[in-house]
Amino acid sequence: MGALLEKAKIALRIVTTDFDIEIMGLIEAAKADLGIAGVELPETLDAICEQAIITYCKLNFGELDKDVVYRRLKDSYDEQKAQLSMATGYTKWTEAE
User: Fold this and answer.
1) I need a surface site. Which of 8, 38, 39, 93 has the fewest CB within 10 A?
2) What does pTM read for this prediction?
3) d(C-alpha 31, C-alpha 36), whole Å
4) 43 Cα distance to chain centroid
């Protein structure tokens, strides 16, 4: 998780370790949220999965100044989640019997 934590901190423009626990919690929450949507994250996260998780962190870290920014980030995350949940490489599709 160290590399992903550092990437999230860069995206959030955080240079201190003061928020590491909060950011790690957001990373875990993002993974759980993607899992609820049917996304099975690979053992080694690729750039697409990392970006969805980082977008979730940006959406939920601190307080956003404007509703427009919140909506833009929410729409972006929802789109990323939807795309991952429909991609065969990130889900387990079963044949209807």
Assistant:
1) 93
2) 0.88
3) 9
4) 15
